Amino acid sequence: MRRIAVLLVCAAALLSSAAAKKGGEFSPSVVLTSLDEMANKCDQMVNSALQLNAKSIKFVPTVHYYGSESSLNSYCYRTTSGSCEAPSKDNMERFTALLARCMRRAVDAGKDIAVLAHLDNMQQYTWRNLLQFNPTEKKAGYSYADVVIAPMARAVNRAVKPGTKVVFTLNGETGKSVSQYAGQWLKLVGSTKNIIKGQKPLRKSDILVAISLNYNKVYGWIDFDSISPASISKDFDREWKTQAGKYPM
Known about the structure:
Structural class: alpha/beta
Strand content: 15-25%
Mean pLDDT: 86
Order of helices and strands: HEHHEEEHEEHEHHEH
Distance between the termini: 53 Å
């Protein structure tokens, strides 16, 4: 019996060692900060990513906003470094078409794709993690869902083929918004899946839509000044109780 137990332990160790050696894969990212980059530089970026022979390529398209560190007034599509257009039917379609064309280059090369929706301030350097905004609330006529999520999801729909695996992350570093408008973010998961699938014969299991959580601004962890391990271990319980009342889930 002891011999069997030893053999089982050795077998488990060997399997664990093999899995550790295999490891996980990092996907190369194509970060797109303007319509100009989508039109003129995206193909080159994808070609560079393809040389790494990864199974998937991650696209990080950026939509900008006007506002402050804590408030969002309106969205816009950046054209060049100093110009940003208010959303319209035409430039939303241009955004989708350019992104779809670039994604299709990766899909045609046999790659799966990932998308990380990215939001940035057009006026000044701020941290989007501090923004407390509702993704379904319209600002100057358009919501985050209208301007960021839907155009990106439509681009994925146009680019993918049956068998292409998609990981679509609705947000990046918007922890305060997610903690305060969790229900609204969750509703976007199903609607985004529907846009990606559209009328194409795609397997539901090949489409994963996710919400990103940033630990520094999740519920109970919004007003902390320090994120050092010492501060976390010392003050978390006290701060959690204080902030839970101030920022109800």
